[in-house]
Write a structure and sequence with these properties.
This protein has a five-stranded antiparallel beta sheet with strand order 12-11-10-13-14, covered by helices on one side. Strands 5-6-7-8 form a four-stranded antiparallel beta sheet, with no helix packed on it. The protein has a three-stranded antiparallel beta sheet with strand order 1-2-3, with helices on one face. Helices cover 16% and strands 43% of the residues. About 23% of the residues have low confidence. The chain contains two helices and 14 strands. It is found in: Cytoplasm.
Length: 214
């Protein structure tokens, strides 16, 4: 009999502690009058963002908020607003505009923009024609400078000003890659420029680091 009373008192104490935790939890069930009472073992908040255990303290509440969607790789721009030396997506490739002109097709025709651009990664020439009032995709393009630490199996080992390293950019092909490799092997301290757009990265140029910069 005494054992049964002790069990009941223990369960009552656990339930009271659970209610105390709920009263201090910032989650939505505090504002819900229809929220069910917690059990002695655990309670899950309605949005399942917080799980409150009957044996945990306030500092042990664990909130797990999911991150938002990633930023888009491109953004829209009206064709007439594009400019030479700017960027545009042509045939799914990020390009730099090297020439553009506007023409009309007949007396009542819509103005059209003729674009000539160069793929920023391959150097391939691409062309497109679009009505001036239509939107075209423009890639987000970034340029960052890194110190060259090493060249390992065809990849550049790089470090930024904050000491963060990256080793997923290939040595550029052709003369650029050959000259970069030769000067690095001569012991020169080099700074390389990495361009990134639409999920691709590439080394587009390099220079010798200023004396005393290391």
């Amino acid at each position: 009999m005494a054992t049964s009373q002790m069990i009941r008192r223990d369960l009552a104490a656990r339930a009271e502690f659970s209610l105390a935790c709920i009263s201090r939890c910032p989650c939505a069930h505090r504002q819900r009058p229809d929220a069910t009472a917690p059990t002695a073992r655990s309670l899950s908040c309605p949005p399942t963002l917080c799980r409150v255990s009957a044996t945990m303290s306030d500092t042990e509440h664990d909130h797990d908020f999911s991150a938002g969607a990633g930023a888009s790789l491109t953004y829209p721009m009206q064709c007439s607003a594009l400019r030479k030396n700017g960027h545009v997506v042509i045939k799914g490739r990020p390009c730099k505009i090297v020439d553009m002109s506007t023409s009309k097709t007949g007396k009542h025709g819509h103005a059209k923009v003729n674009l000539t651009a160069i793929d920023i990664f391959t150097g391939k020439k691409l062309e497109d024609v679009s009505p001036s009032t239509h939107n075209m995709d423009v890639p987000h393009v970034s340029r960052n400078e890194y110190s060259l630490i090493n060249i390992d199996e065809g990849y550049l080992n790089l470090m930024d000003d904050s000491g963060n390293t990256k080793d997923d950019v290939k040595v550029p092909e052709g003369d650029l890659g050959a000259k970069l490799t030769a000067e690095f092997e001569e012991g020169k301290e080099l700074l390389v420029t990495i361009i990134a757009a639409m999920g691709e990265e590439a080394c587009i140029q390099y220079k010798e680091a200023p004396k005393g910069s290391s």
